[in-house]
Design a protein that fits this description.
homodimer; about 280 residues; alpha/beta; 9 helices; globular; six-stranded mixed beta sheet
């Protein structure tokens, strides 16, 4: 089975000097996802927690909302060059979804009228999100929020080795880390966290906080919402469409969370006032 | 037409203080790409240089190798909510490619045997790259290489406003910036640079250098190779599969290019020895 990191030789340049040395790199391998035996998509990911990745992907795509809708996940044994299993093909058994691939393609090209725009994209997601995030009673103190980046970073084992992975972490409202996943793709790291929660029977993730390294895109906001998460925090900037989607759904979107400061773009009422912290 | 940045209100938290203020965000909007009238894909991007983006995407997918294979690019006028053009749908006219979408899907799912693995993925790309990168005579000094990150960063207008965009820059062997593009997606920024080169009649980009913010993935390495670029440099880490693909193709892959140092993972002979710099 593929490893999370791999060693490669490198020539290290530093000012005028040059030396050969080995380097640890984040592994990247293709993963094919099949539903009921039919190939759906191939994408690149860092091997490890693959069942979580597939489960979370299915939640984000609206194909699975609970454990009862996912009968089985298995590596497809078969014809790698050397006759062994490449562990890069996973088949998901969905009892009520024989025709899932076609459905997904329809979603992907849902707005094929000429007028495709952010507004329509948001509307399409809004109708698919099975949770009312506006009703979520999560409250979090600024200090708890400020503490999340260090906790995320401290738990990133593979980043330490390679200097190159994205991370997603699921936290409780009082800042306890429930699950951390790393991947070359930020969206994969989020899928792995959500898939872990599904397989643990924890969905929807009401009252929880998702923290990601890097930026907050439309896609990550969508994934958080599909899992029922009321607060998405990012180390770096959100995009305009991420903010618009969060606004529409009642999800709290926090950006630039670093150095004991943050920007709250939507539903700021979930961040307690300092007075309330003390009282 | 959509703008590259958009303003949103934000609540700024800093230590115990809280204040309302506006913030500039990188715009993100869906873009649907059609080929000869048939929808191929919808993805998120930062508006701006859209024709470059589509042209570069078509080069990366192996559908277009020269200007003569791309008859026209046009925004599909049509049915936005308000009856105007959303500028989010582009139709590409490819004279020899009536059936392009099916071809692309085949490529995407090319290895649907159970043994899909990085090795096979690399082999699939190798057969598609129309350039012999091993024959490229590019040579670059370490000092020129060390100077690229600052030049890239200095040219990033939108990043300065939003703190949140990826960039790709095309440089000559002596470090002159030819083209810089920014986007919420790093792969889009690269597509925009390559598409610019195609539309300027500059492909293939022999002897040139591509520099990207962030990491170097398999996908970015593939895009560089499809454009004939012999050297890809990244501010951060490459993945294992990016290194393996670069090795196979004879492309020079440079990572961790910052603070007057760098790691050269493949084809290091293109980086001149310091002695050669002085002579």
């Amino acid at each position: 089975m593929a490893r999370v990191t791999e060693r490669r030789r490198t020539v290290r340049l530093q000012g005028p000097s040059r030396s050969a040395r080995p380097d640890s790199l984040a592994a990247e391998e293709p993963l094919e996802i099949r539903i009921n035996g039919t190939a759906l998509t191939v994408s690149m990911r860092t091997p490890g927690h693959d069942f979580d990745l597939v489960a979370g992907f299915l939640v984000a795509e609206g194909l699975v909302a609970g454990l009862d809708q996912l009968t089985a996940l298995r590596y497809c044994a078969g014809a790698a060059d050397e006759g062994g299993n490449s562990y890069n093909v996973i088949d998901a058994t969905l009892p009520h979804r024989a025709a899932a691939p076609a459905t997904l393609h329809r979603n992907l090209l849902t707005s094929s009228a000429c007028g495709i725009c952010g507004r329509e994209t948001i509307e399409a997601i809004r109708t698919r999100v099975p949770h009312d995030l506006t009703a979520d009673r999560l409250r979090i103190t600024p200090d708890t929020l400020y503490g999340l980046p260090d906790k995320l970073r401290a738990a990133q084992a593979v980043f330490d080795a390679t200097g190159g992975l994205h991370a997603a972490g699921l936290f409780t409202a009082d800042g306890r880390l429930l699950c951390l996943r790393e991947d070359v793709g930020r969206h994969n790291a989020v899928d792995k966290v959500v898939g872990w929660a599904l397989r643990e029977g924890l969905l929807p993730l009401h009252g929880q906080v998702l923290m990601v390294s890097g930026r907050a895109s439309f896609e990550l906001t969508q994934k958080a919402a599909m899992a029922g998460i009321p607060l998405l925090a990012a180390v770096s900037a959100p995009s305009s469409l991420a903010v618009d989607l969060a606004e529409e759904l009642g999800l709290t979107l926090v950006g630039f969370l670093r150095n004991h400061s943050a920007n709250v773009y939507t539903s700021a009422e979930r961040i307690l006032e300092p007075a309330a912290q003390q009282g």
